[in-house]
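May I ask for a single protein's sequence together with how it folds?
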Amino acid sequence: MKGLIQRVTQASVDVAGETVGAIDQGLLVLVGVEPQDTPASAEKLLHKLLNYRVFSDSNGKMNLSLTDVGGGLLLVSQFTLAADTNSGLRPSFSTAAPPAQGAELFDYLVNQANSKHPVVATGRFGADMQVTLVNDGPVTFLLDV
């Protein structure tokens, strides 16, 4: 399971002109599910999302986690993260999980996040989404668990 995390001052997701998820300070996470992923993969990713130290402390060092700062967590499914881009000039999506498995694991991740963190928002699985964000830093990391 892959999570492209971006530290943001604000982020939102719109579907068909309607905002379906929004946060202020926190993490926007684009989530890619691969065929070998399991609920344990989702739990490992969530642990990293909540505890990865990407927010600055009073000395300007990245020593604080999302949990420490009480920020929002915006989870957005992004099957293209699992694409194979190693050959040619067109991505192959054969390395992405099938839609049913992707939806099941993304929903599992969201449910676990809601049980462990107070501010969780999401996009809509499989929808054409418009994601708006203000990347803080910019700070972006790819977590591959």
Remarks:
- Helices lie at 39-51, 66-69, 99-116.
- Residues 55 and 77 are 23 Å apart (CA to CA).
- The longest helix spans residues 99-116.
